[in-house]
Amino acid sequence: MTTTAVTESGAALALDGVSRVYGGGAPALDGIDLVVPRGRLVAVMGRSGSGKSTLLRCAAGLERPTAGRVRIGGTDLASLKATALTRLRRDRIGFVFQSLNLVSALNVRENVTLPLLLAGAREGRALDALALAGLDAVGLADRAEDRPESLSGGQRQRVAIARALVNEPEVVFADEPTAALDPVTASGVLALLRRAVDEQGRTVVLVTHDPVAATWADEAVFLEHGRIAGRLDRPDEERVRAALGVRTETGRQPAVAR
């Protein structure tokens, strides 16, 4: 089943004719139509400058498109004022970035509970239990009281995933979450995102340049010059590389089987 086979009413995310222009230059996005069903992992791919990061920012409500509309569930983001849009991002969206954005002044448990505290939850045992359950799911319950700087890069990314999932978001946006990780650690991070989809029914939009990372997705969407240039259901590394025009690297470590 491709995203085009799903009606917008049943989607976690829908972009309808979305364009984004900066200044007087060529559009970074040019009439994007994309429907992401609930409970799917979709990889957004393309060369540098293809528009994939702009797509993520517009889809997540971090930027407003120049034209077109974006909907999270049934909510049209264009209908929301700034305060309501901030609330939607806080309550209904999870973010995992390459830069992590963990707060060094807080320990690991506190970093995970931060979205809930910002939403008005009170500190206490119930909140701590949620954080520990999330950390247990990513294999880091024993590091709950440690500071982020004491963790490895892969461990910090797993904390970021626990934080992104703690408020049970409708959509998780992951922007190059494995770019700075070695292949084995990257596979572990991608497995966590895959498990969130398969076991928790989450929807994940993964922006990546890595053909191996795309093999964890249900569908890969390819951008070129701000437009959708192609799609692949159940992508494998060879077909993704062919779509990107990238040769297979000699001696490359294969993707870890899942």
TrEMBL record:
InterPro entries reported in the protein's UniProt record: AAA+_ATPase, ABC_transporter-like_ATP-bd, ABC_transporter-like_CS, ABC_transpr_LolD-like, MacB-like_ATP-bd, P-loop_NTPase
This chain belongs to which protein, by name?
Putative ABC transport system ATP-binding protein
One of this protein's Pfam families, by short name? Answer: ABC_tran
GO MF, one annotated term: ATP binding
The record's keywords, sorted A to Z, are: ATP-binding, Nucleotide-binding, Transport
The organism's superkingdom is given as Bacteria
User: Where's the ABC transporter domain?
Assistant: 13-250
Q: Cellular component GO terms, alphabetically?
A: membrane protein complex; plasma membrane
